[in-house]
Design brief:
The complex is a heterodimer of chains A (320) and B (603). With 320 residues, chain A is mainly alpha-helical. In chain A, 68% of the residues lie in helices and 2% in strands. Chain A contains 11 helices and 2 strands. In chain A, strands 1-2 form a two-stranded antiparallel ribbon. Chain B is elongated, with a radius of gyration of 29 Å. In chain B, a hairpin with a 2-residue loop joins strand 3 and strand 4. By secondary structure, chain B is α/β, with parallel strands linked by helices. Chain B contains 25 helices and 12 strands. The chains are: A mainly alpha (320), B alpha/beta (603). The interface between A and B is large, with 52 and 48 residues.
Chain lengths: 320, 603
C-alpha cells in the first residue's frame, strides 16, 4: 500500500472519530450556549456541570444500579439522558439562589456590566463542585462500562488489502443521541411557547418584560436547560472515557471554543461549532503529535476570533 | 484623585507600614510551614498586581495570566538545569521573556474586546501547557547546590524567600502607584470606561494597552521565576494550569479591582485561609479546603460585589476615620489671576496667534462616500471649512451628519474621497492621530468617563496637547474656566446635568488645544436658557481662535450661530451658503418639511 493510501485511510478514520466526538462536543456547546451565548454569563462551572452529569449517570447505572434492569446496552444511555432532568433542577435553583444575584437587568449598570462578580461567583461555584465531588465521589477514576465501547461497526475497506473505517459503537450511539437531543431542543425553541419566550428574554430582556414575559423565570429555565444539556453530553461521554472530579476543566475550553466558533447567541451555531472542534481535534492527529491535539483547537479558536469574530455561523458582527 | 501628591505620600507611608508588618510577622511566627505560607502571600499578591495592571486598570479581563507566570518559571528552571545559570540572572531574564510574551500576545489579542479577549487569553496558557508537556518538560526539578547556596538562591532559612517575595511585592506596589498617579493610569482608566471617547480625546488607546500588558507580563514572569526558586519543582500543570490564572484574578476580585491595595488584601486573606484548611483537614477530608474556599469567595462576592476594599473604605469614611484625598475641592493651579481675568487672558492669547478672519481654507472634504451594505450613508460629499468660521451642518434625522463626523475624525474609513486638514490628508488616520493634528470632537450621546471627576475627564483630553502631567492639569483647568465649570472641577462626572455634561465634553475637546472643533448636536435636549448659555460658550471659543463645525437638526439656534450652512439629506449635500439664503432654498424646505407640504402650500 502506498503512503497516500495509508494517509487516506487515516484521514477517513480521523474523520469518522471526529464526527462522533464532534456530535457530543456539539451537545456540550449547545448547553453552554444557553448560558454564555444567550445570557452572556461567563460560567467557569460549566465543565463541572458536565462532571456532575457524568457522575449522575454513573450512579444511576453502576453505583446504585437503579437502571441495572435495563441491561448493559440501554442502561448507560438511559442514565445519560436521565442526568438531564436531575441537573435541570440543580441549575434552576443554582440560578435562582446564586447566579441571578449577579446577572440580569439589574447589574447591567454595574462596572463592566457586573462581569467581575459573575466571574468570581462561578469560579467559587466551580471550586465547590470540584472539591465537593472529590469529597463525595473520591479521586479514583471511574467509568460506565458497556460492552459496546469495545465493539465497532465497520465500513469498507475501500481499497484492496486496506483496513475498514471503524465506528466505535458506544461513541456512535452517543453521537446519534446527542444529535437527537439537539434537534429536539431546536424544535422546542422554535415551536413551543416557552421556547419562544426564552428567545425573546434573551434577545432583549427589557422589551420582553414589557411584553409580559417573566424574564427572571425565563433566565432560570434557560440556565437549567443549559445545565441539563451539558450534563446529558457528560453522561454520553462517560460511557467512552474514565473520569474523576477534576475532569470538567479539560472540557471548559472546548466548550467555549465551540460556542465562540459558532457565533454567540446562535444555538444551531454552537452545535456546529462543537462539531468543528471535534473534527479539528481528531484531524490534527494526522499532522501533529497526539499530545498537541488540544493546542490545535486553541490555535483554530484564536484564528477564528481574529478573522471572524462573529463566529462561523453568527449573524451579527458584535464583538463586545 | 489623580496626580495628587498627598495621596502618593500617604500610599508610600502605607507601603512602608505593610512591609514592616510583613517582616514582623515573618520573624514572629516559627516553622518553615508558616514561612512558606507568608512567602506565598507575597507571591500571589504580586501576581495579583500583575493581573490588576492589565485587567483592573486597563479593563481587559485576562483568564490567562498563567502564560506569563509559567514562562517565567520555566525560564528560570531551564536556565538553571540545562545551563547552570543562577536564578539571580534567570529571574531578570524571565522578566524580559515576560515582556516579549506580552508583546506577542498583545498584538493579535487586542483586536478583540470584552468576553472574546478574556476567552482568547484563556487559550494561551493551555496551549503552552500542552506544548511544554509534549516537549518533555513534565517535571523540572532545580538541582541542590549546597556548595554555593547563596549564589543559587537556595536558603535553609525559608524567611529569606519571604523577604524576596516582599521585595517583589513592594516593587509591584510602587509600579502600580506610579501608574495610578500618572497619565498612564488615567489614560487606561479612560480607555476602560469609554474607548471611543478616549480615542477622540487624543489618547492612543492601543499604545497604552500595549504598555499595560508589557508591564503586567514583566511582573507576572518575574513572580513565576521566583516561584520556581521557592518551590524547586516546575510542572506544566502548576504553572500554566487554569488554577494559576484563576488565583491571580481571584485575589484581586476579592480584594478590590483597579485598586492599589486590592491584590494585597485578597492575597493576605485567601492564601492563609486555603493553606490552613488544606493542612488541617486536607488529609482527612480531601477537597474540604476547596469547598470552604469556594464558599468564602461566594459569600464575599455577594456581600461585596466590587471587592472588599471598597466596603472597608466606605466603612472607614462613615466612621470619619478616612477622607477621600482631593474631595476637599480643587485648588486652581496658578494663583493670583481670577477666573474671569483668565477667560479674557486666554481669549486674547489665542486671538494673537493666527488671524481668525484670515479666510484661508482649513479643512477640505472632497467627494467623500460611505456605504453600509446597500445603504449609501454618504454620497459624494464635498465641503470646505474656512479658518475662524462657524460652519453649521444641518439636515433631518438620518441624513448622514454623524457618519460624516465619524469619517472625518477617523472612526471609520470612507469608501472613497479625500479629507485634507491644513493640507494634510486625514484618510486612514486613527482618531487619536486626528486629534493630535488639532481636531477636537464631541458626541451626540455624551461620552463621559463616569467614575472620574470633571477635572480628570478633561485632563484626559489635555494629554494630547501637553508634554507633562502638570501642564496637562493646567490646560485642563484653563479649559474648565473657558466653559465655566471651574468651580465644580472635583465633582464626580456621573452626577451632572445634561447641560453640565455637554460643557464638560466641550471642555475635554478644548483641552487638547484644537485648531478646529467638531460639535455633534451639542444643543440636543437642552432648554431655551441652557441653549443660550451654550451658544455663548461656543461663540467665545470661536473668538479665542478655534474654528467650529457644528451639527444640528434644529434650525432656529443655528441660524443665529453659524456663519455658513451645509445641508445634508440622504447622505448628499443639497445646499450650502449663507444661512439666510439656505433656509429659503426650495430643496432645503422640501427636505425638512416634505413634498406634500410644499404642494399644498403652493396650491
Amino acid at each position: 500500500m502506498s503512503a497516500t493510501q495509508i494517509f487516506l485511510e487515516n484521514f477517513l478514520q480521523a474523520l469518522a472519530v471526529g464526527i462522533m466526538v464532534g456530535g457530543i462536543y456539539g451537545l456540550m456547546c449547545l448547553g453552554l450556549s444557553f448560558i454564555f451565548g444567550i445570557m452572556r454569563v461567563i460560567n467557569f462551572a460549566q465543565g463541572d456541570f458536565m462532571m456532575l452529569g457524568m457522575y449522575a449517570a454513573f450512579y444511576l447505572v453502576t453505583g446504585f444500579g437503579v437502571l441495572s434492569f435495563m441491561g448493559p446496552y440501554v442502561g448507560p444511555f438511559a442514565g445519560a439522558i436521565l442526568a438531564g432532568p436531575i441537573l435541570f433542577v440543580f441549575g434552576f435553583y443554582l440560578h435562582k439562589f446564586l447566579v441571578s444575584r449577579v446577572t440580569g437587568i439589574r447589574v447591567v449598570s454595574a462596572e463592566a456590566e457586573g462581569h467581575y462578580a459573575q466571574l468570581i461567583l462561578t469560579l467559587g461555584i466551580a471550586l465547590i463542585l470540584q472539591n465537593g465531588a472529590l469529597l463525595l465521589f473520591k479521586s479514583q477514576p471511574v467509568s460506565i462500562r458497556t460492552p459496546l465501547s469495545i465493539r465497532a461497526w465497520e465500513l469498507g475497506p475501500f481499497m484492496t488489502d486496506g483496513m475498514p473505517v471503524l465506528f466505535n459503537q458506544s461513541r456512535g450511539i452517543a453521537c446519534i443521541l446527542a444529535i437527537a437531543v439537539a434537534l429536539g431542543l431546536f424544535v422546542f425553541m422554535r415551536r413551543a411557547r416557552l421556547g419562544k419566550s426564552l428567545r425573546a428574554a434573551a434577545d432583549n430582556p427589557e422589551a420582553a418584560i414589557y411584553m409580559g414575559i417573566d424574564v427572571d423565570r425565563a433566565h432560570r429555565i434557560a440556565f437549567g436547560i443549559g445545565t441539563a444539556i451539558t450534563a446529558i453530553a457528560g453522561g454520553l461521554v462517560a460511557s467512552t472515557i474514565s473520569f474523576q472530579p477534576y475532569v470538567g476543566i479539560e472540557f471548559v475550553v472546548i466548550m467555549y471554543a465551540g460556542v465562540v466558533l459558532g457565533g454567540l447567541g446562535s444555538t444551531m451555531g454552537a452545535f456546529m461549532g462543537g462539531m468543528v472542534i471535534g473534527l479539528v481535534q481528531q484531524m490534527s492527529t494526522l499532522f501533529l503529535p497526539h499530545q498537541l491535539q488540544n493546542t490545535a483547537i486553541f490555535a483554530v479558536f484564536i484564528l477564528i476570533m481574529m478573522f471572524r469574530p462573529q463566529g462561523l455561523f453568527g449573524r451579527t458582527s458584535e464583538r463586545a | 484623585m489623580w496626580g495628587d501628591p498627598r495621596r502618593t505620600r500617604r500610599a508610600l507611608v502605607i507601603i512602608c507600614l505593610v512591609a514592616l508588618v510583613y517582616v514582623a510577622v515573618l520573624y514572629w511566627v516559627e516553622g518553615s510551614y508558616y514561612h512558606s505560607m507568608i512567602t506565598l502571600v507575597g507571591i500571589w499578591a504580586a501576581m495579583g498586581i500583575s493581573w490588576n495592571i492589565l485587567s483592573g486598570y486597563g479593563g481587559m479581563i485576562s483568564f490567562g495570566h498563567a502564560s506569563f507566570f509559567g514562562l517565567g518559571a520555566y525560564t528560570v528552571a531551564i536556565l538553571f538545569i540545562q545551563l547552570g545559570i543562577t536564578p539571580w540572572i534567570g529571574i531578570p531574564v524571565a522578566t524580559v521573556v515576560g515582556v516579549v510574551a506580552a508583546v506577542l500576545i498583545g498584538i493579535p489579542t487586542f483586536r478583540l474586546r470584552g468576553h472574546y479577549f478574556a476567552l482568547a487569553m484563556l487559550a494561551y496558557p493551555l496551549a503552552l501547557l500542552y506544548i511544554f508537556e509534549w516537549a518533555g518538560y513534565q517535571e523540572e526539578a532545580l538541582p541542590k547546590r549546597d556548595d554555593a547556596s547563596l549564589a543559587f538562591v537556595q536558603f535553609t532559612d525559608h524567611r529569606i524567600y519571604g523577604l524576596l517575595a516582599l521585595a517583589l511585592l513592594v516593587i509591584g506596589l510602587l509600579v502600580s502607584l506610579r501608574i495610578e498617579q500618572s497619565r498612564f493610569g488615567l489614560s487606561l482608566l479612560a480607555t476602560k470606561q469609554n474607548e471611543p471617547a478616549a480615542e477622540a480625546a487624543g489618547i492612543n488607546t492601543w499604545a497604552w494597552k500595549m504598555r499595560a500588558i508589557m508591564v503586567s507580563g514583566a511582573i507576572g514572569s518575574t513572580v513565576g521565576g521566583l516561584y520556581a526558586v521557592v518551590l524547586l519543582v516546575v510542572t506544566p500543570n502548576t504553572v500554566f494550569g487554569v488554577l494559576t490564572s484563576a488565583l491571580a484574578l481571584v485575589v484581586v476580585l476579592f480584594g478590590g479591582v483597579g485598586t492599589l491595595w486590592g491584590p494585597v488584601i485578597g492575597a493576605a486573606i485567601l492564601i492563609p485561609l486555603s493553606e490552613t484548611l488544606r493542612a488541617e483537614y486536607g488529609a482527612m477530608l480531601p477537597g474540604i479546603d476547596g469547598v470552604a474556599y469556594g464558599a468564602a469567595i461566594i459569600f464575599v462576592i455577594l456581600a461585596a460585589p466590587d471587592g472588599i476594599f471598597w466596603n472597608v473604605r466606605d466603612w472607614l469614611i462613615k466612621r470619619g476615620w478616612y477622607t477621600r484625598p482631593g474631595s476637599e475641592g480643587i485648588e486652581p493651579p496658578a494663583a493670583g489671576t481670577s477666573d474671569a481675568e483668565k477667560v479674557e487672558q486666554l481669549s486674547s492669547m489665542r486671538r494673537a496667534e493666527p488671524a481668525p478672519s484670515g479666510g484661508a481654507t482649513m479643512l477640505e472634504v472632497n467627494g467623500i462616500s460611505k456605504q453600509f451594505g446597500g445603504l449609501r450613508a454618504l454620497d459624494n460629499v464635498t465641503l470646505s471649512v474656512t479658518e475662524g468660521q462657524i460652519l453649521g451642518i444641518i439636515g433631518p434625522n438620518g441624513a448622514g451628519k454623524t457618519t460624516l463626523f465619524n469619517v472625518m475624525n477617523g472612526f471609520m474609513p470612507p469608501n472613497g474621497g479625500e479629507i485634507r486638514f491644513l493640507g494634510e490628508s486625514l484618510v486612514g488616520k486613527k482618531p487619536h492621530q486626528v486629534c493630535a493634528r488639532g481636531i477636537g470632537r464631541t458626541f451626540q450621546v455624551v461620552r463621559a468617563f463616569p467614575r472620574m471627576s470633571i477635572l480628570e475627564n478633561v485632563v484626559v483630553g489635555a494629554f494630547a496637547g501637553s508634554k507633562d502631567d502638570d501642564e496637562a492639569r493646567a490646560l485642563a483647568y484653563d479649559a474648565l474656566v473657558q466653559v465655566g465649570l471651574a468651580d465644580m472641577a472635583g465633582a464626580l462626572a456621573s452626577g451632572l446635568t445634561n447641560e453640565q455634561f455637554r460643557l464638560m465634553e466641550l471642555g475635554r475637546a478644548v483641552a487638547s488645544k484644537p485648531k478646529m472643533l467638531m460639535l455633534d448636536e451639542t444643543l440636543a435636549g437642552l432648554g431655551a436658557i441652557e441653549i443660550e448659555r451654550l451658544l455663548d460658550v461656543v461663540r467665545r471659543l470661536r473668538e479665542s481662535g478655534i474654528t467650529i463645525v457644528i451639527i444640528e437638526h434644529t434650525m432656529q439656534a443655528m441660524v443665529r450661530l453659524a456663519d455658513e450652512f451645509v445641508v445634508l439629506d440622504h447622505g448628499a449635500v443639497i445646499a450650502s451658503g449663507r444661512p439666510d439664503d439656505v433656509v429659503k432654498d426650495p430643496a432645503v424646505i422640501e427636505a425638512y418639511l416634505g413634498k406634500k407640504w410644499m404642494e399644498r402650500a403652493a396650491g
